[in-house]
Every structure is written in structure tokens, then in C-alpha cells.
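Section 5.1 Outputs to date
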Amino acid sequence: PQAVRNDAADLVSVIGDPDFCGFDPARIRQLIDDQATLSNMLAELDRLAVETAPNDTVLVYFSGHGYRGADDASSLVPYDVNEARLTATLLSEEKLSEKLAAIQARR
């Protein structure tokens, strides 16, 4: 939806502005619409785990839908979610936590 794209554009504009956050625009990665597949989301989290150091700052931001299962576990809903294979195609809170914990950046 346009609101999600607007959220992403607004965030990039703020964090890439030297008067605000000053992140290097060349290092800002976005997965928008059909780029935000489960495999791409996991690959970007894995890339951060490999390419960051303890003194780096990392910001992971998700603007989209979430899902809460019958077991009360939360998940992020990627672009390519498949309702027939729901649990296999969501990004579970457990998997997301595992991937975030592997990122060395302390900030």
C-alpha cells in the first residue's frame, strides 16, 4: 500500500539527512513491495550479521502487516506470504530475534 511506501520514504529521508541522523545514503537498504520477500528479508539480516562490527549502528525498520497465530506468537508478513503455507512463509518472532541477535552492532 502507498502508506507503507510513504513510511519507508519518510524514514529514509530523515535518517539520511546529515542534519538529523546522518546515515550514509549509500548504506541505506530498502526492500519495497516485491523486494520484501521472506528470502530477501532473511538475506539482508544475514548480510548485516556479516558486515557489521560492534561499534556500528544498525536500524531495522518494518512497515507492513503482522500476524498473530493461534499459539499467540507474532510474525511479520512478507510480500510473498502464502496463505496455504502460512507458518513456513511468515517471518516468525523467533526467527527475527535469532537474526537480530547475530548482528554484531551494539547500536
